[in-house]
Amino acid sequence: MAVTVSPTSSRQQQFGITLAGAWLVGFVLNAAGTFGWFNGERDDDQVVGWLVVGGIAAVITAGMFWWNRSLVAAPVAARLSTRALIFGVLAFVSIPVFWLGLHPIFAATAIVLGMEAMRFAEGKKPLTFVALILAAAGFVIGSAGNLFG
């Protein structure tokens, strides 16, 4: 007996897996910064703080999934691009607090929503393009802060 998955639940699952992966990337980047893997400033006394920040980021990730899951399931191009821009801005603005590990989560959300908006709007949304650029910049610069800051 074959199990079929509806396209709606499949998109939601992919979105959830993407956000879980983004959380994991942020968690590992925080570990690299906290424990000085690349900058030589080893601080092993920060395990509890690292775990607390990771837990807070996990709760925010779950909230991001919960808030956007219906939009991913039933896309509306205008709402997708607007939310993609919001999360792209949040990814970029979260650079100064890179140690929270939120920039990968915001960037992944912006990218998923932005790519969905591009698919439904045939790629003619400058707002979505700006969102994708901000998300990518927020991810790259924030990650560099984690690794070398």
Description:
The chain is mainly alpha-helical and 149 residues long. It has helices at residues 7-34, 47-73, 77-93, 103-120, 126-148. Helix 1 packs antiparallel against helix 4 (103-120), helix 1 (7-34) packs parallel to helix 5 and helix 3 runs parallel beside helix 5. The model is unreliable at 1-5 (pLDDT under 50).
Helix and strand topology:
Layout: H1 7-34, H2 47-73, H3 77-93, H4 103-120, H5 126-148
Helix pairs in contact: 1-2, 1-4, 1-5, 2-4, 3-4, 3-5, 4-5
Please report which band the strand proportion falls in: under 5%, 5-15%, 15-25%, 25-35%, 35-45% or over 45%. under 5%
Whole-number average pLDDT?
80
Order of helices and strands: HHHHH
Gyration radius, to the nearest Å? 16 Å
Characterize the biggest β-sheet: none
| Poorly predicted segments | 1-5
Number of helices: 5
Number of DSSP-assigned strands: 0
Helix content: over 70%
Task: Tell me the distance between the termini.
Answer: 53 Å
Structural class: mainly alpha
Dominant shape? elongated
